[in-house]
Structure formats: structure tokens, C-alpha cells
Amino acid sequence: MKTFLSIIAFLLLTAPQAAGQIVIKGRVTNLNDDPLSGVVVMIKGSNVSTLTDAEGKYFITAGPEAKILLFSLRGMKRLEEPIAGRTVINIQMVPETAALPDTAHPGGHNTPPPHDIVVSHPEDAVSLEVTVSQEEADYAIVAGTSRDRRADYAYAAHHKSAYYRHPYPVPQNTESYSGIDESGYRDPLREPYSTFSIDVDNASYSNVRRFINLGQEVPKDAVRIEEMINYFKYDYPKATGEHPFSVYTEAGICPWNTNHYLLHIGLRGKDIDKSELPPSNLVFLIDVSGSMNYPNKLPLLKSAFGLLVSELREQDRVAIVVYAGAAGVVLESTPGNNRPAIMQALEKLQAGGSTAGGAGLMLAYKIAEKNFIKGGNNRIILATDGDFNVGVSDNASMEKLVEEKRGLGVYMTVLGFGMGNIKDDKMEIIADKGNGNYAYIDNIQEARRVLVQEFGGTLFTIAKDVKFQVEFNPTYVKAYRLVGYENRLLADRDFNDDTKDAGEMGAGHTVTALYEIVPAGSEETGLPTVDPLRYQGTGAGASAGGAYRTAGEANYSEGIGVGSASEIRYGNEAAGSGMRPSMKDVPRELCNIKLRYKDPGALTSKLFSKTVGTDIKKAGETTDRYRFSAAVAAFGMILRDSKFRGTATLADVITLATGARGSDPDGYRAEFIRLVQSTR
Question: According to the CATH classification, is domain 277-457 in 1.10.443.10?
Fold first, then answer.
């Protein structure tokens, strides 16, 4: 019911019901009646467009002048369907039988069909005055085929049955991603601790989905496996007691290497009813530069913010700051229930000019400080493609800027839009260093998920600077590796250092981490080894290991200085010699999990600890949450062509995920399965 009301609110807010306007809905499928997601649905002759969701469904508002709906999806034949007053239009799409390959190189030769126009270069398409409409040029942009207007016309002309002996080259892709150096195995005798910051971002999954839906190769560095895993909820037990989250663990046989174990660790933040949420002081920081002038950028952005505005209350406040060549305020801080004023300011936004992102950030912080609500949720919501090119714009400068400002108590949410020039690395830095989260919005359904369905988790922080430290017991573990989180790793000494920044957790958020474990006694070779230590003899090892804490002493914090090392729980005289310890007097524990976190307004951290036993579940005994997270991880490793993928295949991923689909009320798990099938 809530989702239905949100849809109605969105339609009312973003499309004023003038005389003759109608809401059209429908479903798009292939010839086998399988739903097609990511289909561009556009009203011909306008810039009004949407995308189909995981079930192939869409909603779009048509004015009295609308005559034709256009349906476009790469690899499928483009369709035009007359509206003629209909409110339900269902479509079946068929494969494109003679599509021009986007990857063709200049100089390629094909025999043109009879009577078709033959030109040699994209420029000739313009010189021949090929007639194309604006929506056809827009289609080329939405489909991600071009960033050059001449090429757009050439592409549009092709879709009007024009033919090119020398197809235009693929336009340069300027998207940028932080490099990922995949984590390898660690020996717990030498490196007993695995320390990292939590990550509740899930931009990578929706971005990967965009590439796959458009039939494009997924860049390896765009695949952050932990964000793909954390896109999905896993129904962990609700938080009870003094800590604002629950911790769940499960260990079983690793699906892609049956000689290994897979440890699943889950964290669930406490749920907060919307009526109990503190008031919000929000600043919408919107990129209106020329690079945002595409249907899947600024128009989609406006619709996304329209969904968020429908969730706001009287006690909430919103200001709007925009930036292009310079930054400016288009709406002073306004009560959240004044929706007409907020929506009017949004609808007036137009794109054009260069991109002074740094100036925009500084102005947004100034507005947030001016309207600061003590004890409230003070947050900047930045919506951009990240393509900053004026003033403070390089990654290091942006990182320094947000680090200086995060002490103000103003958090950051970053929403990424668009394709072709998306600056994922920059947006990830801004969110991570600005005590916030990062989501990539590829369609209106994703906007609804982030800003409506996960409203509390996206905007309301329940714990900040959340750090994991897992200590593995060398009695039972020969080697371990953390799956993903490469950009979130911390030095072991950072765990107890309250000055070190880490990830934030929102209300109702879940966080999942997977460890692949080589069990002790394994004869596997090729694992990393380190020579025995010369100066860490029996005395040192025994001293370190003799004072391990029990599970009942989980909440100690006194006596631990800032930046000091943690106590070694499983240390013993064997650590110095490099020999595996015996099982005598060693706890029957696979590992010990510790978490540090701060309450949102606190400067001092709290500690939570939990041990994991040595019981390993067989394949048929694991839960749906365990198997589905493993399926997503395996898919990520396949996309990355990881050397750790073992025996994993796309068919295995489909089988594992299908058997673990479980309760899927929003259809996200079903969409994942279809995504893997289309990749296959």
C-alpha cells in the first residue's frame, strides 16, 4: 500500500493534471513473455521518458498533445505505439535483426540494402540534411550510444533505415572508477586481524545493472563486490539491547570451492518508525551544468527528488542549491510540507554551462550550517554525474574539502546520474569522506527504492565510524580472505583509534561481509607464506596470547589508548615459530568479531564483540540469506574475472540464487536472476 501511495504521490507532484492528461501504464516483454527491464519509454516529440522496472512495468504521464509512445532497448527492434486515449499499453519487443553494431570501426565494409541511403561518415548525415526528430536524438543519448551531436543524428538516421558503409566510431567513454586491487589470502599466524570500515553504499550494483541492460561490457573496477552484496536485504534478526544493531553469523561450505569454508557476517541496524525520526535540515545540491542535459540526468533527477519531497513532514526543511559555472541558491530553507514551492523550484531548473562542483559544495555546507537543527538530521543530498571541471575539482582536493567540513555534524548523501561521463571515483570519495552514502540512480524505480522504500536508512544515521575487526584462530584457519571491501580496508591500529573515520549506518540498513577460509589441515599449496619471526619467541607469544578476553567481556573500553593495538585472542608460543598451534587450551572458535562504533553525536566509540564457533554447515543446511549472498559474490567475481572465482559459472550463480530467492516482495532478487541470465 505504501509503495502504491508513493507512486500516486509521485505522479501528482511531477505531472500537474492539466486538462486532457492521462497516466499510461503497461508491461513490456519479449516474445516468450519474459519481462524486459530498462526499456526506454518516451513520448514522441517530448523529453518525457521513463524506464521499465524489474517486472517490465512502467508508468508515464501523457499530455493532450501526446500521440505516440516510443519503446527502445538495445538489441531489440524499436517500436512506436499510438496512444489514442489508451491508459494501458502492453508491448512485446522482438530482437533487432539488422542492427548496426555500435562496436564497428571506421572503414568497416558491408553491402547496403537496396534503396537505402549510403554515406561514408557521420558528418555526411548532417550535410545530407537527414531529417530526425529531437526524441530520436534523445534516444541515442538515453541508449548510451553517443555524446557527440553529429553521431546522435547519424544513429537516429540509422534507426530511420539509413545505412552506413563506414559506421561512426564508438564515442570516447570518460567514466572513471577507482582501481581495485583484489584482496588475497592472509595467514592468521602472521596477520591474525582483518580490519575494515563498513560499507552501506550500493551504487555499484545499479551501475553494473545499467551496463548489462544496455548490452555493454562492465568495467572491472566498476564492480565492487561488497556493494553488490549489500544491495540486497537478508532479513537478519532485529536489534535488541543496548547496541543499535544485531550481529548474525553463519559458516558453511564455500559454493565455488568446496575445499574451503565461507563465513557470512551480517549486521542489521535498528528500525525507526518514520513518526519517530528527528526533524531534517536538508540541502539539495543539484548539478545543472551542461553535462546534465540528458533525459536520464536532470529530468530523472527532478522526478527522483519529487519522490523524496512526498516523504517530507512539516518539521523537515529543504533548501536548494545549484551549480554550473557558479553556485547559487534557488530555494531558501522551506518547510517540508510546502511541496508546491519545493516542486516549483525543481521544475524550473535547466542545464547548461561548466561545472563548479567545489563551489557548490561549499555553498551547500554554508546553507546547512545556517539552518542547523541541533539533534536533527542535517544532510546535503548531492545529485550529479560527478563531472566537475571548475575550481576545486580533482579527487584529492574534493577529499580534503569534505573532510574539513564533516566535523560540522552535516552528513552527505550522493546520488549519481547518467552514463558515458560518470565520475564514480569522485562521488565515492565525497560520500565516504563526508560521513554519508552513495547510490547510483539508473531509473525511477531505483530512485523510489533509495528515497522512499529505504528512506530511513538513506537519510538517518544511527551509528557512525563503524569498524569491523575479525581475529582468526590459526588452530582452525590456515588462511582467510575478505571478499570485497578493498577500498574500505583499515590498518589494524586504526580499530581503536577514535580519530580514524569509518562508515556510517542508517536506520534499518543491513551490512554483509563474507570471508573465504582455507581450513587448518588443508594440503592446499600456493598460499602466501612468511618466514618465521626472529625476535617474537616463546615469551612474547605467550604474553600476547595469555590475556585473551572471553565473550562475556565484550564491552570493555577502558584502558585502551587511542591508536593502541588490540589484544591477541588466539596468540601463543607457536606464533613466533611459524608452526600451527595445537588444539590444547585453545577455544573452539573459528574467529572473534569485534565492532567499534560511535553514537551519531559522540566522539568516543563503543565496543561490541561476538565469537564464531567451529560448526560448518553442509550445502543443504545453509539459509537463503547465506546462499543468495554467495550467489551475488560469485557473480561479482565472474564479472571481475577474479582469480578467486574457483569453479563458479553463470549457470551456478543462477541455480544458487534461484534456490535462495525466498521471500522477494519487491522483486529485486528475481531481477538479479534475470540480470545473470541476460549476461549469460
Answer: no
